[in-house]
TrEMBL record:
One annotated GO molecular function: site-specific DNA-methyltransferase (cytosine-N4-specific) activity
Top EC category: transferase
Name of the protein this chain belongs to: site-specific DNA-methyltransferase (cytosine-N(4)-specific)
Species: Nitrobacter winogradskyi (strain ATCC 25391 / DSM 10237 / CIP 104748 / NCIMB 11846 / Nb-255)
Family statement drawn from the similarity comment of this UniProt entry: Belongs to the N(4)/N(6)-methyltransferase family. N(4) subfamily.
Keyword field: Methyltransferase, Restriction system, S-adenosyl-L-methionine, Transferase
EC number of this enzyme: 2.1.1.113
Length: 163
């Protein structure tokens, strides 16, 4: 079985097309998009991106990232991702999305937000599972913040591609 790890903005259809050229149509997509309201996703992941060939300096701009300027805009951006990856999947492919919340956006249930983003994309939600929270591992927030907060529970949303 072959696979591909994609580093790039999946709203851009060319990113998905390039990965598909390497391995053919997809049977599985496993992802964890930035949680709603997390504007520092890329800077927070700087060292991981650097190991994958990214820049050697931290870029704190948010240009080009998923929009966090409102629920509807965020959902529309995610919907573009799901449509793009779905177009490169075999019928019956599986999508697994790990998603959660951040402190200032707890008014939104993560499972409802992801489910709304999947509507009208060809992806059908088949299961939503409680995925616990980051307290079981080492949280970056615990390492770098003086005031520790409790992590929020995350969900795994499973969907099937049914165009």
């Amino acid at each position: 079985m072959e696979g591909a790890a994609i580093q790039g903005d999946s709203r851009d259809n060319l990113i998905i097309q390039k990965a598909c050229e390497l391995v053919g149509k997809f049977d599985w997509i496993i992802t964890s998009p930035p949680y709603y309201g997390l504007r520092t996703y890329l800077p927070d992941q700087w060292i991981r991106n650097w190991f994958l060939g990214g820049p050697s300096v931290v870029d704190y701009t948010s240009e080009g990232q998923l929009s966090h300027n409102g629920r509807d805009r965020f959902i529309a951006d995610l919907r573009q991702v799901w449509a793009n990856v779905g177009a490169r999947c075999r019928p019956g492919a599986t999508l697994v999305i790990r998603f959660g919340s951040i402190g200032d956006r707890l008014v939104e249930d993560p499972a409802q937000l992801v489910s709304a983003s999947l509507e009208e994309t060809g992806w059908v939600t088949t299961e939503i599972l409680h995925a616990d929270n980051a307290a079981r591992g080492r949280r970056q927030a615990d390492t770098f913040h003086r005031k520790r907060s409790a992590p929020y529970d995350e969900v795994d949303v499973w969907a099937k591609w049914r165009p």
